[in-house]
Amino acid sequence: MDLSFSPQEEAFRQEVKDFIADAKPKLPENLGPPELARLSKDDYMLWHKLLFKKGWVAPAWPKQYGGAEWSVTERYIFSTETAKADMPTTLPFGLSMVGPVIYTFGNEAQKKKFLPRILSGEDWWCQGYSEPGAGSDLASLRCRAVRDGEHYVINGQKTWTTLAQYADWIFCLVRTDTNVKPQEGISFLLIDMKSPGITIKPIIVLDGAREVNEVFFDNVNVPVENLVGEENKGWTYAKFLLEHERSGLASASRSRAALARLKKIAQTEQSDGVPLIKDPDFAHRLSALEADLMALEFTELRILSQEARGEKVGPESSILKVTGSEILQRVSDLAMEAVGYYALPDELSFGDNERVGPDYAEGLAGVYFNTRKVSIYGGSNEIQRNIIAKAVLGL
Amino acid sequence: MDFSFTEEQTLLRNSLSRYLKDNYSYEDWRKFADTPEGRDPHHWRQFAELGLLAAPLPEEFGGLGGGPVESMVVMEEFGRALVVEPFVPTVVIAGDLLAKSGGALAEEILPKIAGGETLIAFAFAEAQSRYNLADLMTSARKQGEAYILNGQKSVVLGAPWADQLIVTARSGGGQREQKGVSVFLVDKSAKGVTTRDYAAMSGVRASEITFENAPARLIGKDGEGFAPLDAVVDHAIAAHLAEALGAIAVLMSATVEYAKTRKQFGQPIGKFQVLQHRMVDMFIAEQQARSAALMANLKLGDVDGARAVSAAKAAAGKYAKQVGESAVQVHGGIGMTDELNVGHYFKRLTLLEMLYGSRDHHLRRMAALS
């Protein structure tokens, strides 16, 4: 047993820190915590482009496809340091979702066409998985793709499509066979968002942001060459992607960064004339939360070292999703509580005017409400527990 | 022992519930919540017509002679409909403070409250005060028969709609001393009162208010306002607990209804045991919150009344959060949308949880009163 990182890893950490110190002034201040983001398309891309220039935008991708091909430990160091410095995160849809699917299951033409544009940020991707009738039960999806010569014709609807309003492409799970078991009739298609027949309708969420959308397909033609892998094998690729997604959804480093911000707030806020952080009840709850977080950080490290040894990490990653999301929700709750009545103003009502109350109170209630999603998306926590029950405990 | 409502109380509930159903639906609420005014002034006049505003006030001042149970009935129905109008600050806080202090001010204002001719907001919180009602930097100086106020108040709920304000200020003593706290009535249109209005959680409106040599009228006794203030805030908490209960009840039934109709894996999601247990826990929480609200209202003014209020506030806060969060979780993605009513009830519960003190604050007060 050894907790220390190797000298090479420490050198890498320093390199990351230097890069962050250099990049930070190039980003507008309010880009910080990703939960606060009410960002424009350009804002989202600023950090992406800096990382791309450095060759770091795709930490996990193999070098042959333009990735950094970092070890799991290096990736961990990078995400920890960026979270610590309150840097934004890159969007996962291209870099962590469809990218790996394309280089793992796609053909050469697809790799050549799509991967460089994901890296450079030229193409913005969104995810077409959920449908109104297919949430936790994803395999029941009904968005239909019918082969017609050299095209598929798509009819149906996707929903909860994050930031589809900016997207150039959508990767979709579509039904190509209705006469087999649900999982066996699904295909993985890449669809140009500019195709005629696609309409997008915004969904406003609890913090007032337009984060997600409904996407409708009305006789949309998609060239057959945009099919990834084999027809009707989409479920395999979908599961591959979901497992990737799961472990990154609610990482401890996000909670760690949020907790650091919360501590700063608690040092400034007053309770009966003393800083809130000295209030025994508050301090107790803060410590209880941090204790759980510290344990989670070690759970992450344990899983990480397993991966670093080349062992396959399967359904255990559900633990990270469940625990990570619940801790993130608790941090958002305590942060909202820390600012007292100044959590109550509705951010949107201020428009471009100066808000009321201390700056650090901005958006905290919105973050609390918005963070409800982390126990719902990427496979709800109920589904994650089912996975653990079946696949880990054998129940 | 009898927990049943009188015939009059039941009539009050039924007529209000009918009015809200016909005129204050979620669709209506959305319409006026999106306007700059944020409310439809017609409703307040109707509330007066229905006798709600007079119900808890003493008869000698134009009221109907009810009390906390009447306020509780009104507020539970208000909670069901996400009503935004400031019933508690106007009728409970101002009404109760004025009725207890009596005199010319009570004779002047209380009939106006009962008749729906005035809307009053309660300006008590300051940037540094958190939940301590005595932590005041706003100062009051006597000038002849009147007083002059200087200071700032934070997040005054309902203030954009109010024409008058109940303001807590210090006329003596140190910053957090209970002695020296006084309570005033201030005309919002008076010189020296400036407001900055904005929207707050769940359709409620609020203001930041600055007093610069603003004229004020004293309610009660100079420097001895803390005890009546503390008591009237307990009364307000008890009323808001009933409001929370109304919101909890709506979330409870919406969630169960959704679980019966939403299908995944070929069956209604309500058939999954893990969700059943979650909803059973919501139901238990609702029942516990109902008991807490009743306890607080029935014990108001008793020897152990303040402790019961804090106990109820702390317990109900926990249950309300549980119900709000679970309602969203069981609804899944749709529960995250601004369109569905669930999120707005969840937000109202979140606002109420914070108002007049967090769970920590009330557990501490409870311990201090033990």
Describe, in short, the structure shown:
Chain A is 44% helix and 14% strand. By secondary structure, chain A is of the alpha+beta class. Chain A is globular and about 75 Å long.
Q: Quick check: average pLDDT of chain B? A: 97
What's the β-strand tally of chain B? 9
Radius of gyration of chain B, taken over Cα atoms and rounded to an integer in Å: 21 Å
- Main β-sheet, spatial strand arrangement of chain A: 1-4-5-8
User: What is the oligomeric state here?
Assistant: heterodimer
What portion of residues of chain B belong to β-strands? 15-25%
Q: Could you give the distance between the termini of chain A?
A: 32 Å
The tally of beta strands of chain A, per DSSP, is 10
In the predicted model, the low-confidence regions of chain A spanning at least 5 consecutive residues are: none
Instruction: Encode the helix/strand succession of chain A as letters.
Output: HHHHHEEEEEEEEHHEEHHHH
